[in-house]
Amino acid sequence: MSLTIDNGRAMDSADVRMPAPLNLWHDDRPLPPWVQELARDFDVDDLVEVIIGRCLSIAFPNQAHDDEFRGYLTASTSANARCLRSVIAGEIALEDVHLEAVLSFAKVQAQLRIPQKSMQRSYRISFFTMWEAWSNHLRKAITDRDIDRDEAFLAQQLLTQTILGYQDFVASQVAETYTHDYEALNRSRGHMRRSLVRDILRDESGVLSSSDAAILSYDLTSRHIAVLLPTVAEGAATQLAVGMRAAVSCQHSLVYPLTLSSSVVWLGRIGEWKRQVLDALDSVLIEAGVPAAVGGAHAGIDGFRTTLTEAMDAERIRAAWDRPGAPSVVHHGDVGLEILLMRDPVQARQFVERELGPLARDTVEAQRLRETLEASFRFGSHVAAAEHLQLHEHTVRNRLHKAEELLGHTLNERRTELQVAARLIRLLANIEQTPVTPPS
C-alpha cells in the first residue's frame, strides 16, 4: 500500500499504467467544507497502529514476528492513510494521485509468495478500518456541531463514496503490480528453486522429476546439515555459503530465505560430518560475526527436512541464551537437553523452582550462587571453578557452602538435577519471546 504523490514527473515505459478512477456513483458533489476541515484534526498515527495490528493477526499471521515485513507494512499503510486524508481534505484530487512504478509492499508480498487472497484481505481490512475510523470522526463532529440531519446524511454518503472510490483506485493498481511481479518471479530460476524447496519441506513423497532436480541443483541424497542464519538475508547468505562450502569441502549447498532478513543454508557431503569439519564451519561463521544455529547431519530427503527442524529448535535456545560469553554458533547436538526440556516451559519452570528453591530467585545473590554452582559442576574442582570465575578458591568454597545451606542438602545429593536446573534457568526468561518463523 505504499503511495507517493507524483508531482508532475514524466512517467516512463516501465511505470505502471494508471487507470482512471472508476466512477461508481453519479453524485459528483464535493465533500462539504466543514468535513474537509475535519481531516486536519484526524489522527493518522493511531489509525495506522490499529490497521497494522489487524492485518498481522488476520491476513499475515506467519509474518507477525518478522520486523522487516512489519516495517514495510507500516510504511505502506502510513503513506496510504495520509494520502487518503489529503484526498478527503480536498488537498489533492483522486485522479491526481499517482503510485510509484513499483509499489513496494505489493512487490515484497510477491517476493515472499504471499497468496494474493491474503494481500487482498489485508486491503479489505485496511479500508474497512479506515472507513470505520473516519465515520466515527464524522459522527462525533455531527453531534458536537449539531449538524442538520439531511446535511449529516449527505456528508456520510459523500465520505463513504470518497473512501470506497479511493479504495478501488488504489487496490486495482496494487493487484496489477503484485500480479506482474509474481508472474515475473515465477519465470526466474531462483524463485522456481525456492518453490521447489517449499514443496519439498511440505511434501512427504520425496519424488522429484529430472527437470525439477536440475532446477534445484542440489543433491538430496547427500548427508545434510542446515545452517540457520537468523540475521542474514538471502543475498548475503549466498555469499557466506561460498566460504562455508570451501571450509568444509562439501559438494553441494542450497540457500533458502526464511523471512526477508533470515535464511537457511543446507550443506551436503558424501562423507561424514566429523567434529573437525564442523569446527571449520564454526570458524567461518564466527569470523563473519553472524549468529547461527546448526542442525545435525542427516541423509536423504527426510534428513533434508529433519536437519532444518533441528536447526530451528537450536535457534530458539541460542536466541534465548543471555549469559555473558554465550556462543554465537550453536549446534543442535550441544543443546539437545535444553531443547527437550524446554518443549514445555511451564513444567521446566516448575522443575527449576523445585530443584533450586531459593537459588531460583531473581536476585543478585541467587544469580552469583548459581553461576558458582554451575562452574563447579562444569569444571569439577574448586580450583578450576575459581580460575574460571576469577575468584579466590575460598570464595568459591564459601559460596558453595551457602548454596547447600539454602538448598537444605549437599550438592552431590542431587547433582544431576541441580546441574540441569542451572542450565535451564538461563533460558526461561527469554524462551517464549524468541519465535522462529517456520518456512511457509
Automatic annotation (TrEMBL):
Pfam families: GGDEF_2, HTH_30, RsbRD_N. Residues 369-423 form the PucR C-terminal helix-turn-helix domain. Residues 60-190 form the RsbT co-antagonist protein RsbRD N-terminal domain. Coiled coil: none annotated. Gene3D superfamilies: PucR C-terminal helix-turn-helix domain (1.10.10.2840). Residues 212-316 form the CdaR GGDEF-like domain. It comes from the Bacteria. Belongs to the CdaR family. This is Uncharacterized protein.
